[in-house]
Design brief:
- The protein contains nine helices and eight strands.
- It is α/β, with parallel strands linked by helices.
- Helix 3 packs parallel to helix 4, helix 4 runs parallel beside helix 6 and helix 6 crosses helix 9.
- The site of NADP nicotinamide-adenine-dinucleotide phosphate has 31 residues, from helix 1.
């Protein structure tokens, strides 16, 4: 079984669509809304289950039900779901939502499922070139702050939109740091962990929180950008993501950051092992606090 979070649209949907072409793959996609998730899954012969990564209770319920169900062994987990806000949004758990969904929700999900992964198994975290200050993406550079500061940020001196965009690139750096950290931690257990940059994919739902004009531009004008290097369709990037989590020739490859199918260097700071470990340790502490609050 391979689980793809955020499989109802964009990259995750296209990844799942490729994975189901191999009848040996039992593919589970997730999305927040149960009916919409089941409909998306049915369209591509996958299986759908609801999961809201902004909610610790939803992550625990999803993982508990998945593990209890009579399903093939869990071999792959694609941490793909993500979104970008245009203003400060808090989750019902009281955390800044970009950090909570793009990073912490996935750390929580991995934590619940890791003991149920059956080696050889693979985890892939979807990152983005926006994590890298040396790469021009038009996005503000990531913040350097502790997990706790990212989860419960003070008021920002920046405009709400710029602050929200910076939190997106920050969350993508966190995805990468998590992948590198877990690659080391999980190697002895036969679980590989890699990070993936799908390139700029105009037309996905990523800009759904933006204004009407920006959304229209994302869907239409941006498509004309497809001729530029680094700009790709969700279908192409989804196929590469499926390759990353399932292709036999990738067996054993771990701790890499790939653009398309090519391993590349990520930002300098992303390789700092102390920062990676601190982010992971603090993220687990935040999850423990959430659990203690609800216990
Ligand atoms: N588009 C780009 O140019 C681009 C570039 C680099 C990296 N990426 C990364 O690619 C990944 C996929 O993005 P996309 O462009 O394919 O966007 P998308 O079409 O909006 O897909 C995002 C997916 O995440 C799910 N999702 C959103 N909020 C969620 C939550 N709270 N809990 C659980 N699932 C949630 C959505 O499902 P529901 O709405 O059904 O819940 C949807 O299936 C993201 O990690 C993004 O950062 C995208």
């Amino acid at each position: 079984m391979i689980v793809v979070t955020g499989g109802t649209s964009g990259l995750g949907y296209e990844c799942a669509r490729t994975l189901v072409l191999d009848p040996r793959n039992h593919v589970v996609i997730t999305g927040r809304d149960g009916a919409r998730t089941h409909a998306s899954a049915a369209a591509i012969n996958a299986h759908g289950r609801p999961l809201d990564l902004s909610s610790r209770a939803s992550v625990l319920a999803f993982a508990g039900e998945l593990v209890a169900a009579d399903l093939p062994p869990l071999r792959g987990l694609v941490c793909n779901a993500g979104l970008q806000f245009t203003s400060r949004v808090l989750t019902a758990d009281g955390m800044e939502a970009t950090f909570a969904i793009n990073h912490l929700g996935h750390v929580g999900l991995i934590r619940e499922l890791v003991d149920h992964l059956v080696a050889p198994a693979r985890i892939v975290l979807v990152s983005s070139g926006t994590h890298n200050p040396d790469q021009f993406t038009g996005m503000p550079h990531p913040l350097h702050a502790t997990a706790r500061e990212l989860a419960y940020p003070p008021e920002s001196a920046e405009s709400p939109q710029r602050d929200a965009r910076r939190r997106y690139s920050t969350s993508k750096l966190a995805n990468l740091q998590t992948a590198y950290h877990l690659a080391r931690e999980l190697a002895p257990r036969g679980i590989t962990v890699n990070a993936y940059d799908p390139g700029l994919m105009p037309g996905t739902g990523l800009a759904r929180d933006a204004g009407t004009f920006q959304r229209a531009a994302w869907r239409t004008i941006a498509r004309t950008l497809l001729v530029l290097p680094g700009v790709r369709t969700p279908r192409r990037s989804g196929a590469d993501l499926a390759w990353l989590v399932a292709a036999p020739e990738r067996a054993g490859d771990t701790g890499e950051y790939l653009v398309g199918r090519r391993p590349v260097r990520s930002s300098k700071v992303s390789y700092d092992e102390e920062l990676q470990a601190a982010l992971y340790r603090d993220s687990i502490e935040l999850l423990d606090e959430l659990d203690a609050r609800t216990a």
